[in-house]
Structure formats: structure tokens, C-alpha cells
């Protein structure tokens, strides 16, 4: 079921949203389905926080599919600024346009194309504007704007986002204000590498995305990797749950569970054994210290 195909999307409830997400291959719990439903009905940004790999970005992708909307992703990083998120001018094309205009004037001095003010205005035509993610999301309807890993940006960028999210509009001095015909659904994600300011969180609906329960993780593995046996999916899910309780530097997320199960399957495993688990540990753990700890505990017990 896709909401875009429903005659009255406003009549749908959280359960319907959950079923629609499941149809895309994303398996939400009740809390996440409710948060997505409220974000849609209340027209509020959805702020998702949680460990890396728990499915925050995937939810935005699934919502775009459910809504029949374009997914526009803004990947945050240290030092990102408004120009990289909003728009920029295509300087090389502007230079080419300027040279073409100068050539035309030299070829026909009486053409009247020598007005400097008119030439300057032509340089800032809409065709020379490069729409960055936020402007692109405002201009395209419907759209889902994914602001990924907002915790990697700085305080100034957060303040800028507050203004944009409040107005759903962008003012370009040379062109004027561009306002969204219909506000995009905004999904912000954070791995909590630093605390995001309360002002931004207050503007959003907040949801903590936890690691899935054992049964739900098994269901995710079976859905994403139907070729993997039931036994292998259950044993991988159980082992990963033990790893998350082992005080690791980087506990594995669902994405790592999927990678590990796939790697084991490709080696011909129908269940989890110590040798193949050790050989594929790099699919689920990304730090040497974590790998040593797990070899000495979880894998040692498997060998025993």
C-alpha cells in the first residue's frame, strides 16, 4: 500500500502507516509508525536520534517511497554552511554568458546590448542558479527532505535550519523569495555524537530509534535476505544482541547484522559456527579492539 494511491490519506492511522512502510521492506515498531504518522498529520519535522545503523536514514527512504515523493538528501558534515545547503550560482556558465554577450556587442555595436545594468541582471537569471538540497526540496512537490547526521554540523548551521524550517521559504537577493507550494516532509537524523540544541528539537517531533527486538531483527534479516536460512538469521540476531551488550566502541547496528548474515550465507553457512564467524567478523565489527573482545567472549563460547 502506498499513501499516494489512497483516496483519503488523512483517514489513515499509525497502523496503516506501519503497513505501508512494511510494504517497502522497512519493518517499524509501533512507536516509530506513530511518530511518522504524527509528523505527516501535524506537518512537523521528525527528529530521529539513535545509534548508527538502526535504520534512521532508511526510514526517510521508505517514507519517500510510501508517499510517492522525491527523496532529497542533505548530508551534514563539519563546516557545512548555508550556501552548500541552499543554492549557489553557476559561475562558469555565467562567465560563458558574459563572454557571449560581449562578443555580440563587438559584432553589432548598435544592437543596444551595452546596458551594463541589464547585462548584470541577465547574469542572475534562474537558469544559472544551482539548487542545493533544501531549495530543491522546497521546489519539488511532494518531497521528503532528509537532513542526515545533523549532529556533525555546527551551531550556526542549526540556527540557519531553524529559520528555514519555520518559513518553508528561501530568499535569494537577486531573484526574491521562493516558497514551497506544499512543505516537504523533513526528517532529521542524529547519531548523538554531540547534543543538538533544544531550540531545534522543540521545532520537531522527537523519536529515539532503538536497536530492534530479537524477533524484529530476525524478521528484518529474513525480509532483506530471503535466501538466508531461518536458523542462520536467528543465530546471527542472537549473537549481535550479545555484542551490543558487550560495551563495544561501536556496537553493530541492523545494517551490520544484514552484512554479516549475507557474508556467512555466501560462505555456505546454514548456522553460526566459530570458524566462519571469525572469518567474517569484519562485516559486523569495525574496530580491532571490539573484534578482540568478541573473539575472547562470544566466539570463544561458540567454539566451546
Structure description:
The structure is a single chain. By secondary structure, this protein is an alpha/beta fold. Strand 6 and strand 7 form a beta hairpin. The protein has three domains: 153 residues, 3-Layer(aba) Sandwich (Rossmann fold), CATH 3.40.50; 43 residues, no CATH class; 90 residues. It is elongated, with a radius of gyration of 25 Å. Strands 2-5-8-1-9 form a five-stranded parallel beta sheet, sandwiched between helices. A two-stranded antiparallel sheet has the order 3-4. Strands 6-7 form a two-stranded antiparallel ribbon. It is built from 15 helices and nine strands. Helix 10 packs across helix 11.
* CATH architectural grouping of the largest domain: 3-Layer(aba) Sandwich
Pairing-aware structural class of the strands and helices? alpha/beta
| Count of runs of 4 or more consecutive helical residues | 15
Shape: elongated
The tally of domains stands at: 3
As a percent range, the share of strand residues is: 5-15%
Give me the Rg, rounded.
25 Å
Mean pLDDT: 90
What is the helical fraction, as a range of percent?
A: 40-55%
Low-pLDDT sequence parts: none
